[in-house]
Amino acid sequence: MQKPELDPDVADIAPDSHILTGYDEAHLVTYLRLLDAAEEDADWREVARIVLHIDPETEPERAQRAWESHMTRARWMVSNGYRHLLRGGAPN
Q1: What angle do CA 68, 91, 25 make, to 5 degrees?
Q2: Has residue 83 got a pLDDT over 90?
Q3: Cα dihedral angle (30, 34, 39, 40), rounded to 10 degrees?
Q4: What letter would DSSP give residue 87?
């Protein structure tokens, strides 16, 4: 498994795969930050700006799509993806 960056840039859309991807491994910290923000009821626009590096004022549709897809993936990691991590990470 590759070491995740602390504050990486993100794709416009997170992966939608039934297996763990290299992108997931690289963005584990991003997913954790998103889940923490959701737990604190943070405004998605603030989270998009700070965590995803997308300004919702200038790119509202892109910011919301990215936030929604990454939140969905973060929740998948909690319910399913972690199992792949325990087995050694994403397939090469």
Answers
A1: 40
A2: no
A3: 100
A4: T
